[in-house]
Amino acid sequence: MILVIGGAGYIGSHLVKELVKTNEVVVLDNLSTGHRWAIDEKAVFVEGNLGNEKDLESVFTNHKIDAVMHFAANSLVGESVTDPLKYYQNNVAATLTLLQTMMKHHVKKFIFSSTAATYGIPSVDIITEDTATNPINPYGRSKLMIEQILADFASAYDMEYVVLRYFNAAGAYETAEIGECHDPETHLIPIILQHLLGERENISVFGSDYDTADGTCIRDYIHVTDLANAHISALQALLDGSKKTATYNLGNGLGYSVKEVIETCEKVTGKKANVVMADRRAGDPARLVASSDKIHAELGWKAQISLEKIIASAWNWHQNSAKVTN
Ligand code: UDP
After folding, report:
1. What is residue 305's predicted lDDT score, i.e. its pLDDT?
2. Nearest C-alpha to atom 16 of ligand 1 is from which residue?
3. Are residues 196 and 277 in the same domain?
4. Which positions fall inside the NAD-dependent epimerase/dehydratase domain (predicted)?
5. Assigned domain for 304 exists
6. Has residue 231 been placed in a domain?
7. Which of the residues 29, 38, 70, 317 has an alpha carbon 20 to 30 A from that of 267?
8. CATH number of the domain where residue 313 is located
9. Which residue in 119, 139, 221, 248 is the catalytic one?
10. pLDDT band at 236 (very low <50, low <70, confident <90, very high)
11. pLDDT above 80 (res 38)
12. Whose CA is nearest to atom 4 of ligand 1?
């Protein structure tokens, strides 16, 4: 049985949809930001908190857990700056309680959702796992702290783990049953598509004076199903013992500017966006593009889905989402 913490959230729910095809799955989620409707019906659902020892105890005593995949975290950079306590409490302290419970129950295999935010403002154009980590906000620091804790636990307690550093997750499940559904929504692609559906008046471009070809920020967008498949490869490597510890970037290896993303959304939807230039958003690096060569070489995983297809899947979801969420 695989325990997925945060399986009702955006990335966790897409992972669960793939994982239930080959594994028994139990989801623990407090539904604070995730959605009950997003959890695949083949998974067992337990409502509870990963920082609550009693909730964890009941999951670990009621199910024989072989590995844990941990997606449950707060992930808004701006909020982490104004409310760091929330981030260190939920992302660090609660995860420590989870790791403690795992060790008590002799469960040693762990997959952790980390982030490109651990790199801060990188000094290289293409980020590898060897690029220095230097997070510039409490969100990135909270994720890096768990990465460091995992390395120490591997040395001291034989913990086995794969850390996956996501770049910009986007897109939706192919059937449009689930997709990105945050409140508030802060991510670029859903904001553009909501605007093109008439749900927002315009799109603000946060900064057009960056040191990039068109002056807007460049990001590496990766489809959630590609992300989900990377997790399944990582899980397999832990379960068959071919990996004991590893850290991998997950991206497409291609950078697109904010303007290019808007243009691609216009092309996919056949609609014209009303774009407003705005000030830079605090803490945005000009360029974040991953090399995912390491996971390709070691586990054979590579992103398959292009930006156009990412946006097309998200567009299907946004057109369908009212039916699912109401
Ligand atoms: N962005 C923007 N307008 C928006 C939302 C985002 O210009 O309404 C920009 C943001 O500044 C960044 C890029 O789009 O350069 C991707 O932002 P997002 O929040 O989607 O992901 P992040 O890279 O912050 O994880």
Report:
1. 98
2. 188
3. yes
4. 2-251
5. yes
6. yes
7. 38
8. 3.90.25.10
9. 139
10. very high
11. yes
12. 188
Q: What is the pLDDT of residues 149-161, one digit of tens each?
A: 999 999 999 999 9
The verdict on 103 and 140 lying in the same domain is yes
Q: Which domain holds residue 271?
A: 188-219+253-325
Q: Which of 281, 287, 288, 307 to mutate to test the pocket of ligand 1 (most atoms within 8 A of CB)?
A: 281
Is the pLDDT at 54 greater than 90? The verdict is yes
- So what's the ipTM on this one? 0.98
Query: Residue 182 falls within a domain, yes or no?
Result: no
* Site of tokens 């796992």: 129
Same domain as 84, residue 208: no
Residue to probe by mutation, ligand 1, list 114, 218, 258, most atoms within 8 Å of CB = 258
Which residue has the least CA distance to atom 25 on ligand 1?
A: 168
pLDDT of residue 325: 81
The sign of the torsion formed by the CA atoms of 153, 122, 185, 272 equals negative
Q: Indicate yes or no: pTM above 0.90.
A: yes
What residue's CA is closest to ligand 1, atom 1?
188
Candidates 74, 137, 187, 250: which one to mutate for ligand 1, based on the most atoms within 8 Å of Cβ? 187
Shared domain for 125 and 233, answered yes or no, is yes
